[in-house]
Amino acid sequence: MSRKYPFTPILGWSVSRYEKFDRCKRWYYYDYYARKHDKDVSPQDLAFLRSLTSASLEIGNAVHDTIATLLRRLKRKTSPIDTEKVLNYSSSQVDRAIEGKNFLEVYYGQRETIDAADLKDRVGSCLKNFFGSRWYEWLTGEAIPGRSSWIIEPEDYGELRINGLKAYCKADFLFPITEGNLCILDWKTGKADRERHRRQMMGYVLYARDIFKVAADEVKAVIVYLDEPNEELESSFSGSELDEFAGQIAKETEEMYRYCENVEENIPRPKSFFPKQAGRLCAYCNYRELCESEPEEKRAVTCP
């Protein structure tokens, strides 16, 4: 039996949320608070900028969507998978993204257009590496009898509690491997960032421990890098490592709390308390036109 938590407005820690907070407070503000609290920018403009996507993001989206669709199909029926049809499906996902989404690279003039053929090639390469992996062989063979217990992209955003603090650690795929043991797989389509991904893996172990009441030493967490064939990251964690990680999460959560006027309701301080970190990260920020057009007198102040 899995545990579910009722909604609370207080912010929840996640690897991605804290990273954005740490890299640029203003980017963090625009992503998490501006829609409800920024009176300087119209909701329509904010919604448009927030919706900007990127080529690398859409490669990941297409690969994740395709694998999730394939796994749901396997969960329903076990007839052989036509991998060519799967690749065609992924191509249609790329076409849909290019036709229906606005790309950051085009909007900010870094590219004239997005090369659909290049994106399809990169998505196809990742999926072919997936088809050639030990996991695909296992999932279409030995794992089939237990497919009714598969959890494919959980719908609750991976919410959990870590020493009473709200957090989010959403993995791509969870399934039992033996009685009382759980395996968690997460697909990555970009470059391997083993230090960052190891933090994510510790989050997955804590998620399994809290939500499914599985002991940490009974969780197998694996990052599968699909940009290169047969590249993975698998780690086991001692109780002291997990305790240290939980302590770090508490520290990082407290840092984000300090930028709230009302912590329990997750109401932020004024935008001026969220300083900008100008530099190379601006090239990847959806909101950089807002910073570029900001009057000098509204430059950020430091949060106490």
Give an account of the 3D structure.
The protein folds into two domains: 29-131 and 275-304, no CATH class; 147-269, no CATH class. Helices cover 45% and strands 13% of the residues. The protein contains twelve helices and nine strands. The strands form three sheets. A five-stranded mixed sheet has the order 1-4-5-6-7. It has a two-stranded antiparallel sheet with strand order 2-3. A two-stranded antiparallel sheet has the order 8-9. Strand 4 and strand 5 form a beta hairpin. The longest helix has 22 residues, at 55-76. It is globular.
Unreliable stretches covering 5 or more consecutive residues:
none
Strand order of the largest sheet: 1-4-5-6-7
Compute the number of strand runs: 9
The chain-level mean pLDDT equals 93
In what range is the share of β-strand residues?
5-15%
Quaternary state reads single chain
- Structural class by sheet pairing and helices: alpha+beta
**Radius of gyration computed on alpha carbons:** 21 Å
